[in-house]
Amino acid sequence: MSTVIAPKGLTWTVLRLHRTALIVWAVFVLACVGYLVWLTEVTADSVYAAQAVCRSHSGSFCGLMESRAYRESMSWISTFFYYSFWAVAAWAGGSLIGRELESGTARLAWTQHVTPTRWLAVKLAVPALLIVLGGAVFVPVYRWAWSAHRDLMGDDWSFPDVFAARGPAVVAYGLCALAVGALAALLLRRSLPALGVSVAAMIVLNQYIERHREDFWPTVGNGWPPQDLWQTRAGTYHTPSQFWPMHLVETGIILTITALATTAAFRLLRRRTA
Hints:
- By secondary structure, the chain is mainly alpha-helical.
- It has one domain (about 10-220, about 230-274).
- About 75% of the residues lie in helices and about 0% in strands.
- Helix 4 (about 85-95) runs parallel beside helix 10 (about 170-190) and helix 10 packs antiparallel against helix 11.
- The termini are far apart.
- The model is unreliable at about 1-5 (pLDDT under 50).
C-alpha cells in the first residue's frame, strides 16, 4: 500500500493558511503583466493605425485622444502595482500577524515546538519572497513596455507611480509595508487597529518620500526645463540620466526603514515572549 507524503512544516502552514491572499497576489501580478503585453503588442498598433488614417485626411495633429488613452492605460498599471503596498500593509497587519495574535493562534503555535522568533521569521519570509518574485516579473516587463513606444508616452518619467515602477523601489515599498504591518500588529495585537495604523503609516511615509524625491540627487540647470526634464520647486531640474541615482537612493531609504521596522518587530516579540 503506497503512502502519500503530505507537505509539512511551518512554511507550508503559512502557505496553506494564506493561500487565498497569495493566489490573489499571483493573479494580480500576472494580470498586470498580461495587460502590459497587450498594450504594447496590440493596442499600440491600433493607435498607430488610427493616427495614420487621420493624417491621411486631416493633417499632422491626429490621434491625440488615442495616444492619450494609451499613455493613461500604461500609467494606471504602474499606479496599481505601486500602491499595492497599501494592500500588503493591511494584509500583514490585519491578517498575517494581527489576527493570529488576537485569536491566540500564535501562542498555540509557540507551544508546538515553534519558537516565537522562528514563527515571525517564516511569517515574514514567505510573503517577502513572493513580493520579490512578483516585482522581479513586473519591473522588467514594465520597463520594456514603457520604453517600447516612447512617441506615444510623452514626458512621464518623473510621475510618482512611473518613477517607482521602473525599478526596485516598487518592491522595496512592498517589503516595507510588510514589515510595518507586522510591527503594528505586534504593538497593538488586534487586527483591525493594526490594519488601520499600518496603512496610515505607509501613506504618510510614501507622501513624505514623494514630496522630497526631487531632493535625493543634485539638480542641474536653471529656468524652464527643456523637454524630458523634471523641474523642481526651486526652478532647477533633473535630467533622465539621473533616474537611476535618484531611484536607488529612494530604494535604499525604503529598505533601511524596512530593516528598522523588522528589527523592532523581532525585539518587541522577544521581549513580550521572554
